[in-house]
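Subject: design request, 495 residues
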């Protein structure tokens, strides 16, 4: 995000060329109004958790006499937000800006907007980083978001991701003029490239629906829209408008940080997580599979090896059964997950995926070989586990734990276990993106990660959304207790 000194006013990528912007009234945008019930809390704005300081400050300010002070000594997200009525005169871009100052910041400060229609339904959100600078004096930062006439309410939100102190002041929103010219040839060709991939591979088969999104994208990228701004629109507006709930777009830098650096492109969260396990007091083996995103062969091997090493250790102790906890598996790369639990799911086809273009892909595990095969076509090795473990004690009960955070590759792993004998699921329904995402690289190194298939279990039962457990419970702890009870009742001692 381009950071600007206080006297300069530019939107990302291009100047406003003397045009007049319509100012949107943001209640208490300068944090000058106090909450009547508190000497330190600001009016209208609120924190989304109580784990960090989110109060007015009369010692540091960009303008007026106060600013909003954000301070935390704990890792993670620290949000503040405000909602208020909002109206757009059609498909428009809006400039979102504020002044920011930091001290001892270890992380980043994010500002964004989320829109709602009259029914309360979420519309596409857009966000940008204000700064990652550890110690920075007051600086203006500007980005934009997109709104349509359906928008009726807006939530302006900020996030201190990490630790340190930051001050925010003078948050403003301006409606930008509607573009009067078509996109440049370069920009138009880039948009065509994006939509050629969508037309050919998306699970969305309504071509007129896709054409409508393309027309809006072309409109938003009119005039002298820069390549960076076009990518931002494709990322936060266009891909969201596909409404398949799973596709996402990453810039070259974000893709590299995600698959190599192990950082979430939007939040900065760690994506290189590895399984854990333990033997419970009643001789039941417990395995927890976390989210994992990487294409590094060594890290893929570490994930799968960790799981199979745990399985080998517990199997040799003749466990009474298995609990596979997917409640915090929010996705990533499914292949080391499948390879890791391969000894429990056994050899063969464990899942199907029905593509939008009519083809069907199978997911296969076979003695450490994990890959895919197109029905009537070629097969592809994706991951090979060296020295795969073979279960000594088979046919033990397997309890699978779902949660609302079980998503994407976590749901793939859940489906791979459905249909096995002596298997039952517990917990809450999953997040609801049981669709296959294929990764398509664009000419500039960006990636469109597109929902391209509806996932199905080994028996070809299609899902595509939420997966409900066999036994619903209020939380994960209750699910684990229920799983233990079921295993002790179900246990078989076949060797």
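Subject: RE: design request

Done. Sequence follows.
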């Amino acid at each position: 995000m381009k950071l600007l000194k206080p006297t300069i006013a530019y939107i990302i990528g291009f100047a406003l060329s003397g045009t007049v912007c319509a100012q949107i009234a943001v209640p208490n945008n300068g944090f000058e109004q106090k909450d009547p019930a508190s000497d330190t809390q600001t009016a209208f704005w609120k924190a989304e958790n109580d784990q960090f300081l989110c109060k007015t400050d009369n010692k540091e300010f960009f303008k007026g006499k106060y600013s909003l002070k954000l301070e935390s000594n704990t890792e993670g997200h620290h949000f503040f937000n405000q909602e208020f009525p909002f109206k757009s005169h059609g498909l428009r871009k809006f400039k979102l800006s504020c002044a920011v100052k930091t001290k001892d910041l270890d992380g980043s400060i994010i500002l964004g907007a989320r829109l709602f229609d009259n029914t309360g339904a979420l519309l596409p959100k857009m966000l940008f980083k204000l700064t990652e600078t550890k110690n920075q004096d007051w600086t203006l930062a500007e980005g934009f978001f997109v709104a349509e006439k359906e928008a009726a309410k807006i939530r302006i939100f900020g996030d201190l991701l990490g630790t340190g102190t930051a001050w925010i002041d003078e948050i403003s929103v301006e409606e930008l003029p509607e573009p009067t010219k078509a996109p440049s040839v370069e920009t138009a060709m880039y948009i065509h490239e994006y939509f050629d991939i969508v037309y050919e591979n998306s699970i969305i088969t309504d071509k007129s629906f896709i054409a409508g999104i393309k027309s809006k994208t072309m409109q938003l990228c009119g005039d002298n829209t820069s390549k960076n701004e076009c990518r931002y629109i494709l990322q936060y507006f266009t891909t969201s408008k596909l409404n398949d709930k799973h596709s996402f777009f990453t810039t070259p830098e974000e893709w590299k940080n995600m698959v190599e650096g192990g950082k979430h492109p939007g939040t900065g969260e760690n994506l290189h997580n590895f399984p854990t396990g333990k033997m419970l007091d009643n001789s039941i083996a417990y395995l927890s599979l976390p989210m994992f995103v990487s294409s590094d062969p060594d890290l893929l091997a570490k994930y799968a090896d960790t799981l199979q090493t745990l399985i080998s250790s517990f199997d040799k102790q003749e466990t009474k059964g298995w609990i596979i906890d997917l409640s915090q598996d929010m996705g990533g790369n499914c292949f080391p997950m499948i390879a890791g639990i391969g000894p429990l799911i056994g050899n063969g086809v464990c899942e199907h995926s029905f593509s939008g273009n009519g083809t069907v892909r199978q997911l296969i595990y076979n003695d450490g070989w994990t890959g895919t095969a197109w029905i009537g076509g070629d097969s592809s090795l994706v991951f090979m586990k060296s020295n795969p473990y073979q279960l000594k004690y088979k046919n033990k009960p397997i309890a699978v734990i779902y949660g609302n955070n079980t998503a994407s590759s976590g749901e793939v792993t859940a489906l791979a276990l459905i249909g096995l004998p002596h298997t039952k699921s517990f917990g809450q329904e999953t997040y609801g993106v049981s669709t296959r995402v294929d990764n398509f690289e664009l000419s500039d190194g960006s990636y469109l990660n597109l929902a391209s298939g509806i996932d199905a279990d080994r028996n070809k039962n299609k899902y595509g959304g939420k997966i409900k457990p066999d036994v619903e419970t209020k939380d994960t702890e209750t699910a684990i207790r229920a799983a233990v009870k079921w295993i002790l009742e179900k246990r078989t001692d076949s060797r």
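DSSP finds nine helices and 23 strands in the chain.
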